[in-house]
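pinging the channel bc i need a second pair of eyes. not urgent but kinda urgent?? the chain im working w is below, pasted from the shared doc
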Amino acid sequence: MTEAPKKRGRLFYKFLFVFLIVSLVPLGIVGYYLVSLSQVTLNKAISRDQEALAVGFADTVSSYVINFRNVLFDAAHLQDFASMDAAKQQALINHIMQLHAPFLEISVMNASGAETVRVGRFVRDTKLRDFSNDALFNKVMKTGEFVGGLEKYMGSYPAITMGVQIVSLANNQGTGVLLAKMSLTGLSSILKTGFPEATHTQAAVIDSNGFLIAHSNLKEIYKPDAKMPEDVLKILLQNDAKTGGGEINLDTGEKVLGAFAEVSDLGWVVYIQRSISVAYQASNEMLSRTWRMMLIVTVFVLFLGYAVSLVITQPIQALREAAIKLGEGDFDYLPDLNMPNDEIGELAHTFMQMSESLKIKTVELMSAKEEQERLNRSLENRVEARTRELKSAQDELIKKERLAAIGQMASVVGHEIRNPLAVINNSIYFIKTKVNAAAAASTVPIEPKIVKHISIIESEIRQANGIIDEILGFARTRELNPKLTHLNSYIEDLTMSFPFPPHIELMKQLAPENPTVNIDTDEMTQAVRNLIKNGIEVMPERGRIYLRTESAGDMVRIDVEDTGPGIPKETLDKIFAPFFTTKARGTGLGLAVVKKIVDRHKGRVEVSSVLGKGTCFKLFIPLVTNNQNK
């Protein structure tokens, strides 16, 4: 006879049901809470990033206008303007308009308000005008300068009026006014470059009345009476805050993420708008991935519950069958028990029929229970370990995404700042040329203050370019180009090319074995020079810089030590964090770049400092052995 198929007991389904309820319900509650919290946090971070972007572009707009104001200011303080020689003034104005396309019209008025020179790109009527009763003229003569007066030049170009007082260098008195109308279409080009159509983002600059000054879509600014939609203006113009942002429901039914920032000194507002679906794309993708992972975990729990239930009930089923066979012996006075109608009840009834086998089977059951608990503890430990790993990976991902956003923003801002710096540099070069030419043609020497201020401007331009290079250097990552290098020769070459000031004494202690390292010399030079530069900056009067090299096992140590004031303990743990600085001027990226470079070389950085005695930075770089050289 063939054996009848075994039916699965009712205990299996009960155990499976309870296991799934106990496992999936807490998992679902916790998962839903974590997903919601993560999405809200990420959405807030996206909104803050967009608000920071608006603040950055507000600064760019302010710098754009101020730079052209400075061009007029510098021109108005030239001797040729102060002399009120119309021919010289017209030549200089023609040169300014040739160099700076945004200037649409420039006029010169004498101290009484009579227009002496008028140059314009689209001016047909060259008749000179009288500004003696003009409020703008009188305001410039009184205050020295004016920026404002938004208008549609020739009914098409958005433009503003700028006025600067012409000052005589002899007595520092105002001799007239230099008045200009400047086109603002360049701002729209900047916005279009920063927010192309592919990003589904719109950016605009509006004045205090809601009229468009610039827009990332150039077609918008050429519209008659160009303004932002009323629902957006209602939010922007009624808000007293300098910056802000959040979700906005437009009258069209569309929901967008908006951010605004006030342009300092001009009363304008930079507004950035992005569709919610685009802005929260990363958040929605994270939500989708999280739910997929939750689904996978749920399926896994179902499979695990099935397996565990099967593992637990099978021994009990086998034990019941064995007990039935053993219960066929001659046993008397067995009580009748009313047990539940399932495997446990049948097993208990069988065990009551066999007194001798009960102890043995009980021991086996306890052993199985202990094994189950051990397996459960092992499973819990593994789940906790995987949870910690997942959280660590998630934190690292968020950190990398934020740094990538900061790097992208730094790159955009750096490139945009370099344009006005180049304009300033060209203007200074032009001023120096004219001043030197005037000095050569005249017996009157150049006024020292002019030379001093020109030098200050050039120094500040170099300082600004250095800061931009530092930010871009931190934001970019290129492939390492390592090569075998003798460390002592490398240190000698580095110190020979470094401009140590006279009050700094350099002390070198190089390892006699001249160790070999495999480094990218350009990046490592940047790291060592950053440390030397920091040491020199904290010793303004006099001090020493120590450079040491020493083998340390399978590593080589490069020490850069100064005799400065040292670093406080509460600051020491933060010095390698990006953008952290204790200097009045600085980006806070110098030491962050040092750590990044050493980490890329698979090394490490250590620092020790004693207040009042100095600070020592130790760079550990992997040593190249003779076998590796071969």
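so Residues 1-7, 329-335 have pLDDT under 50 and may be disordered. and The first helix runs from residue 10 to 76. — does that match what u expected or am i reading it wrong
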